[in-house]
Amino acid sequence: EAEKLNKMSSLLERLHAKFNQNRPWTETMKLVRQVMEKRVVMNSGGHQHLVSCLETLQKALKVSSLPAMTDRLESIARQNGLGSHLSANGTECYITSDMFYVEVQLDPTGLLCDVKVAHHGENPVSCPELVQHLREKNFDEFSKHLRGLVNLYKLPGDNKLKTKMYLALQSLELDLSKMAGMYWQATNANPLDKILHGSVGYLTPRSGGLLMNLKYYVSPYDLFEEGTGAPIVLHENNVPRALGMNVSVTVEGTMAMYKLPIAPLIMGSHPVDSKGTPSFSSITSANSVDLPACFFLKFPRPIPVSRAFIQKLQGCTG
């Protein structure tokens, strides 16, 4: 029984620590008094009553995490220049802008249920990476995703024009994903072959605030863990985003106007040769619009390129 009393004392101290900012200690004492209002002699029935009291206190400790989580989310939203609001019962926190919103779903005890992202005019879609960051209390990474979403819409024009630019990026992403699928369909390539020989490298779709990633090269040295020297075995569920050399796919505003597709251009679902080459439809006024923007491949850091290779790229892209 002494051990049970010590455990109860420890829980009371934790309860005080949890509630010292959100609830006066007098209210906590009132809660404890309500739990213990029936004085019970320490017999077999008293033991069960004590266990019940401890369970009640543990539930009270869990409940305190809900306002702590929502307060933190609202603070992160403000830091990134975004709005936020809570649902009536406080279990959904919405982080909002004109062009997107992030919905964080919590249960009444403050445990995370799901995180969804909705772009302008779209239904919210669950984002596993954001779920993982919040479950691990990795608020810095969560904040980076929000900054990525904000930067995605740093485009010229009003919301209607920004939506068209987003549709153009989305159509490009769909075509690139289809190209990646066609290459695999034609070659049944493993992840390393996709990286080194694939038509678009190894493709990781856009997720939350992270842009679509194309991994186009890894050296033999990259395939050993730093420090331990253990080999890194690549498979479809284990291709680290930062491994090797990568580019991100995005759309950015420009001074000049460019005709950008707002619908996918790949025709059919089968490649035209053994290398996974797709067949593209022509760009017309029906599937594209003139926009003050252009598609970009963004390197994570500057990379030296020879003039001859730049001219070769220019010859391909015009």
UniProtKB/TrEMBL annotation:
User: Where can this protein be found?
Assistant: Nucleus
Family, per entry: Belongs to the Mediator complex subunit 1 family.
Q: Please describe what this protein does.
A: Component of the Mediator complex, a coactivator involved in the regulated transcription of nearly all RNA polymerase II-dependent genes. Mediator functions as a bridge to convey information from gene-specific regulatory proteins to the basal RNA polymerase II transcription machinery. Mediator is recruited to promoters by direct interactions with regulatory proteins and serves as a scaffold for the assembly of a functional preinitiation complex with RNA polymerase II and the general transcription factors.
Q: Does the keyword Repeat apply?
A: no
Q: Where in the numbering of this chain does the Mediator complex subunit Med1 domain appear?
A: 52-317
Record keywords, A-Z? Activator, Nucleus, Transcription, Transcription regulation
What name does UniProt use for this protein?
Answer: Mediator of RNA polymerase II transcription subunit 1
Origin, by domain of life?
Eukaryota
Its GO biological process annotations read: cellular response to thyroid hormone stimulus; positive regulation of transcription by RNA polymerase II
Q: Name one GO cellular component term.
A: mediator complex
Q: What is its main location?
A: nucleus
Kindly list the GO molecular function terms attached to this UniProt entry: nuclear retinoic acid receptor binding; nuclear thyroid hormone receptor binding; nuclear vitamin D receptor binding; transcription coregulator activity
Report which residue ranges the record marks as coiled coil: none
InterPro entries (UniProt xref): Mediator_complex_subunit_1, Mediator_Med1
